[in-house]
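[recover] target loaded
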């Protein structure tokens, strides 16, 4: 029987969590809009944006592997309830300080770090839970649709944030984000009965971290996919941190234009995610992944040399499509290839690559922007990523392993019926 399009939506637990995460991530994106604008109000130095970015990056890089080991040891539904509640409280504190007029840059940095600590546990837990919500033949659809959660929120959230930034102010956007976490907490009710517990004898947490790192370093396909994700995030996505500068100083647009600049890649990303989600099968995922990375780098470079707002939106739309194709293909390979007992740890490393390294890239871009300007800093980094991607394309050995993974999923993948 042929696998239907958007097959993962046939699973009620997946569908409930997908909707809850979409609502929550829209709120998170609105908070990102408000936070970037607020930081720019508090300091004109580009490095201030970089400091907030690195405050988020450090916990994601160093604590996410521990989060992955915890996700392989404890019930994942319970872990998600704890992390989502913690992020709700973090957003409430940020909103209260801002609305009371007492917010300072160091407080934003500290709260960004606290939110990142929670995300370091939340993200690998959700990624590891995903195959337990769907059947084996629904997994590729689930991974792509899971990418659409962030992509869709990246379309809706910045657009809403830009429109509401004026009337509500940053504090109001932070409050909206706090309320949005209730959607995920409600969705967790539908996950009762889902087999979300690890194996009978999971590794101790710190031993589990070491075992996960050893597996990733020894397994050629896992190592290569993670390296590509690092390259794309570290060198390709620094534009996200510097977007307030592009909006205010390069393209000369206000809060609404800023929101649209953030929403344009989100619009492209949701197109790419739903296109992949609709695909019944995807052949040569390795080539599609590399092609997505190369296209993404070229489009970011075009964005940095454009001074017309409408054309800049077009480049960002295309960058969103190609970035989502690249990341979703990498996640699919890792999900299918990783043994069930190590899945949380492997996906925690993917989280480090996708989120932690993206935020480190923001610090790198902000530091370079103080010397050469934002366009040159972002464009130069994207060119570096493009050249590295070409080198990987010329080394085809890992791609044969990728083709085998798509043909025969890794033994031990346990999924819900």
């Amino acid at each position: 029987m042929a696998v239907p399009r958007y097959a993962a939506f046939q699973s009620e637990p997946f569908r409930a969590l997908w909707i809850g995460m979409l609502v929550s991530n829209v709120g998170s994106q609105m908070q990102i809009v408000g936070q970037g604008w607020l930081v720019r109000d508090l300091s004109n130095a580009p490095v201030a944006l970089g400091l907030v970015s690195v405050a988020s990056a450090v916990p994601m890089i160093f604590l996410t592997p521990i989060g992955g080991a915890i996700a392989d040891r404890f019930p994942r539904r319970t872990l998600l309830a704890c992390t989502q509640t913690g992020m709700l409280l973090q957003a409430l504190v940020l909103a209260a300080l801002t609305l009371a007029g007492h917010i300072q840059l160091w407080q934003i940095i500290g709260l960004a770090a606290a939110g990142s600590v929670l995300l370091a546990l939340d993200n690998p837990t959700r990624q590891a839970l995903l195959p337990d919500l769907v059947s084996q033949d629904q997994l590729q659809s689930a991974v792509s649709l899971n990418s659409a959660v962030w992509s869709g929120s990246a379309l809706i959230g910045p657009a809403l944030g830009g429109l509401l930034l004026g009337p509500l102010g940053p504090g109001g956007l932070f409050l909206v984000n706090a309320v949005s976490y209730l959607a995920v907490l409600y969705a967790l009710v539908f996950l009762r009965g889902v087999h979300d517990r690890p194996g009978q004898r999971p590794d101790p947490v710190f031993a589990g971290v070491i075992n996960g790192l050893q597996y990733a370093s020894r397994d050629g396909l896992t190592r290569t996919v993670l390296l590509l994700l690092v390259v794309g995030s570290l060198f390709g996505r620094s534009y996200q941190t510097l977007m307030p500068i592009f909006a205010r100083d390069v393209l000369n647009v206000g809060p609404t234009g800023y929101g649209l600049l953030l929403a344009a890649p989100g619009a492209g990303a949701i197109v790419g995610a739903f296109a992949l989600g609709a695909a019944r099968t995807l052949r040569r995922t390795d080539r599609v992944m590399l092609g997505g990375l190369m296209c993404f780098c070229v489009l970011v470079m075009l964005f940095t040399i454009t001074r017309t707002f409408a054309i800049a939106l077009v480049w960002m739309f295309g960058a969103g499509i190609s970035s989502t194709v690249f990341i979703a293909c990498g996640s699919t390979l890792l999900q299918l290839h990783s043994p069930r007992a190590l899945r949380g740890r492997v996906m925690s490393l993917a989280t480090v690559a996708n989120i932690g390294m993206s935020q480190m890239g923001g610090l790198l871009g902000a530091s370079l922007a103080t010397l050469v300007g934002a366009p040159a800093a972002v464009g130069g980094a994207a060119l570096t990523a493009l050249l590295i991607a070409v080198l990987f394309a010329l080394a085809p050995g890992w791609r044969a392993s990728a083709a085998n993974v798509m043909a025969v999923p890794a033994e031990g993948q346990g999924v819900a019926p």
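[recover] notes: DSSP finds 14 helices and no strands in the chain.
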